[in-house]
Amino acid sequence: MFRLLLAAIVLAASFSVLADDQSCLVSFDSAVLNACSGQVQTIDPALNGLADVTRFARSEFRVVKFAQPVGRDQRRALENLGATILGYAPHHAYLVRMPASLDSAAAAIDGVIWTGPFLPVWKLDINLARDLAADAGSSRGTDIIREAGLDQLVIGLHGSAQSRGLVNRLEGLSGLNLVQSFTGFDGERLLVSFDRELMFEGVMALAAEDGVASISLHWPNELMNSQAPGLHQSGSVTNRPIYDQGIFGCGQIIGAADSGLHATHCSFSDTSFGQPVTSVCPSGSSCAAVTPDFDHRKIGAHYKWDGSTSGGPADNQGHGTHVIGSILGNNPAQAVDCETFTTPGGVTDLDGTAPGAKLISQEMGASLQYLNSLGGTIYHAATVAYQNGARIHNNSWGSSCRNELGACIAGCQVEYRQTTRDADAAVWEFPELALFFAAGNSGGLGGNAGCGPGADVGAAGNGKNVFSIGSNNRGTAGNNMSGFSSRGPTQDRRSKPDLTAQGASIVSASRSACGTVGNSGTSMATPTAAGLAALVREYLARGFYPLGSEEAAFAIADPSAALIKAIMINGAQEITGTGTTGGAPSQSQGWGRVHLDNALYFDGDDRRL
């Protein structure tokens, strides 16, 4: 399988290179190679020492650049030389592992116009590169690290074979200290703390190490803190045509990685079953999947990954309980019957948008310790959820370009961060898994100061394969965007968010026996959309398409995430009220507000899917 390139793979806007030049360019965050001229342009001359092709000519990690999109025969010819393809770089280039002595043979392959070393400057993310330039005396540099309060790096390695010797050398580098090693989807990674005053020489030396694939700032991930079923099914808060067809999310399993879960809340509890299957593991991405038990009314398995070594499901923050309630909470007084596809009552604040679905819960802790300090990754969390049967996974968290006081950090960009690469890799590995991410709360309207293009949409909401969800207002105000909702484009100029759902003043489960609490944010919009995706999956799994009535012969048992996204985008309703920046699609609302009755055809409808 082809992986995304470990180093950042987007073109910094400051280079201002036209798309017409793609036949010559290899583009990274911190430097661009013009393969036609052989010149490398860094974002700052202070980094030119890491862009010397001659100095690093013998590296066994190399870039092979084609003039045009690469065909199967060309890729096979490269592999037949003995090259191992590690990833892709824009435009039309591969990162490979092969001896430098094979450059001439690789250059003879049809379409190849340049081969050379994978340069150290390409390993640096753009925010780190700008700060290093400032350390070297550049007037164009920044001090993002200090303003953001960051003190750790994530070092990606080429596999794990290089790590032992590298760790020994790392201990001798000025200003750097190894915190821990952990496993990513693409090999071993190191979490390294640094002394801001002393780090420059150490990072420059580390970048020159052949076994290092990427060096990124470790941005902490943060949580991105009733009427939804009607608004997003029909556009009316009282009309729920999808539920009227007996579609409640039955047969669907949804994963949620969040602060935790108050599992004894009545929206989730099962008094006859007791505590759900629980796995306690403090080891981040090394934690294994367990066998779920879906005889529990709502919870197939709960993973306690907050660093604890014992105990049951908990939520010391309340965010996860609220989020999960919005996805699939179900009032026990009118529980969904997934055998008859009925419910004895209406919808209450105890019900999520997919009240018939079941849950794989992943407790990351109130400060998201699993991600921020224990070596956990979204790729690992998504993999475990997938192994347990989940085909939808909710993530109401991300990292941004704001400091601890909420102010935008000057010069900061939300680049294609490690978390984003992990999320996209998970969907590549498991194409049926729909990963939902909050777009972020850095919007520039409604009294909020936006951080600007490339700095508003958070990571991994800026992913290519994920569902990035913005927020519209609640209920009858749903034709207006929420002022806090992050606007696009992403740093590499892609449009985000993809869709919107209501995220303002949302009432859902609280940390109590059966109570509710209100909250706002794209954290609240994302689970609303994730639950609605479960209704789309059930529609397909029960064979409603194409005739509009349930026919087992037409069932699509395991539809791809791409198909779910296409259906939801197809039916999206353009938001025309306040907070928009033009009609859909746009950088404020994406393709619009989720509207399932526009997307799902039922017998008798005028509009077909």
Salient structural properties:
alpha/beta, 609 residues, Rossmann fold, single chain, Alpha-Beta Plaits, four-stranded antiparallel sheet, 21% helix, eight-stranded parallel sheet
What's the quick description here?
The chain is α/β, with parallel strands linked by helices and 609 residues long. Helix content is 21%, strand content 19%.
Mind explaining what this structure looks like?
The protein folds into 3 domains: about 15-120, no CATH class; about 125-215, BMC (bacterial microcompartment) domain (Alpha-Beta Plaits, 2-Layer Sandwich), CATH 3.30.70; about 220-600, Rossmann fold (3-Layer(aba) Sandwich), CATH 3.40.50. The longest helix is centred in the C-terminal third of the chain and has 20 residues, at about 520-540. Helix content is about 20%, strand content about 20%. Helix 11 (about 380-385) packs parallel to helix 12. It has helices at about 70-80, 105, 125-135, 145-150, 165-170, 200-205, 230-235, 240-245, 320-330, 370, 380-385, 420-430, 520-540, 560-570, 595-600, and strands at about 25, 30-35, 40, 60-65, 85-90, 95, 110-115, 150-155, 175-185, 185-195, 210-215, 220-225, 255-260, 280, 300-305, 360-365, 390-395, 395-400, 435-440, 465-470, 500, 505-510, 515-520. With about 600 residues, it is α/β, with parallel strands linked by helices. The model is unreliable at about 1-20 (pLDDT under 50). A hairpin with a 4-residue loop joins strand 2 (about 30-35) and strand 3. The two termini are about 35 Å apart. The strands form 6 sheets. The protein has an 8-stranded parallel sheet with strand order 14-15-16-13-17-19-20-21, with helices on both faces. Strands 5-6-4-7 form a 4-stranded antiparallel sheet. Strands 9-10-8-11 form a 4-stranded antiparallel sheet. It has 15 helices and 23 strands.
